[in-house]
Amino acid sequence: MDGMQAYGAGKAGGAFDPVTFLQQPQTVLRIVSWLFSIVIFGCIANEGYINSPKEVEEHCIFNRNQNACNYGVFMGSMAFLCCVAFLALDVYFPQISSVKDRKKAVLADIGVSAFWSFMWFVGFCFLANQWQMAKQEENPLREGGDAARAAITFSFFSIFTWAGQSFLAFQRYKLGADSALFSQDYTDPSQDAAGAPYTSLGGDDMESPGGGGGQANSDGAFDGTSGYQRQDY
């Protein structure tokens, strides 16, 4: 596979270039998604729970719906870990020598990224709906309002960052499938010629349709000793 790429990376064993790695579009999107997950997790975990002056127990700022806060915290933490895992995979990816293993990694990237894009869409709709239904009298001081709006906003942005990762992985899959097909079906002409049966062009090894040697038949046609009979018309 010299001079070729399989699923967006060159031949295994090359030196790792951190500058080139950080400039790749999928790396940029992963880092941005990683930052978004930290913001969402931090906003809800730190300021997503409030209590009124008459209450001791804290409630979720999103319409007192504990599931909304739990969803945001869980999604933020899991997206953080997923981004770290895929960044590590991107670093290791050029060292994978097997085309099949590269294909599995790219397919996993497509599926997981698409899944997270959908889950952030659900999270955005859920948080936005619960924030809209929240009653002002339950939070007269409007505590945590900025954090709630930030969590909703970055949930919306995360839809597109994860969808972009899925799209880029799909592009890598298309490029990788073409190069892998070429490398598997291509046959070196020199090897193909070497594998073909050798046919001698010399007269000694060629046989005539009659089963005799070609040289013998040729001689017999001229010296008259091969049983040739003249016919008169």
From TrEMBL:
Chain residue ranges for the region called Disordered: 192-233
Pfam families (UniProt xref): MARVEL
The UniProt record lists the keyword RNA-binding: no
Transmembrane annotation, as ranges: 31-51, 71-93, 105-131
Record's keyword terms, sorted: Membrane, Transmembrane, Transmembrane helix
PROSITE patterns: MARVEL
Membrane protein topology class: Multi-pass membrane protein
GO cellular component: neuromuscular junction; synaptic vesicle membrane
Domain (MARVEL) ranges: 21-174
Compartments it resides in: Membrane
Family: Belongs to the synaptogyrin family.
Record-linked PANTHER family: SYNAPTOGYRIN (PTHR10838), SYNAPTOGYRIN-1 (PTHR10838:SF7)
Protein name: Synaptogyrin
Name of the coding gene: SYNGR1
